[in-house]
Specification:
Elements (H helix, E strand, L loop, with lengths): L1 H33 L3 E7 L2 E8 L2 E6 L14 H16 L8 H6 L8
Antiparallel strand pairs: 1-2, 2-3
């Protein structure tokens, strides 16, 4: 009888944990979809990056071109803005906001600053 009681309690604990995790994930994605992500492009010593804010908090800080080896910086504010806009749009559509090398090529982002 004690074994059944322990199994029952363990099952209840697992259900509570799973429900808590699901609620947290749901709340995170609902927050993204109900607020409009804001973009800020910034310059540091002639190189550029971007931040995306959700509800006034930094959600992404991207100081270099994603998916490119060596972590080169963005050469222009326009390049940083193009990638940030792509990411923001994907966030708003609840899609994966991962930026691929193909995305970088399609947006014609400069990889080498002159």
């Amino acid at each position: 009888m004690k074994k059944n009681k322990k199994s029952f309690i363990a099952t209840i604990v697992v259900v509570i944990v799973v429900c808590s995790v699901m609620l947290f994930v749901y709340a995170k994605f609902t927050t993204v979809s109900n607020s409009s992500p804001e973009i800020e492009c910034y310059e540091i010593e002639g190189e550029y990056g971007y931040k995306i804010y959700i509800n006034g908090e930094v959600f992404i800080n991207q100081p270099f071109i994603p998916s490119v080896s060596g972590n080169p910086p963005f050469c222009s504010k326009a390049d940083a803005s193009s990638v940030a806009t792509l990411v923001r749009n994907r966030l708003m559509l609840k899609r994966s906001y991962t930026v691929t090398k193909k995305d970088i090529e399609k947006l014609q982002i400069s990889l080498y600053c002159l």
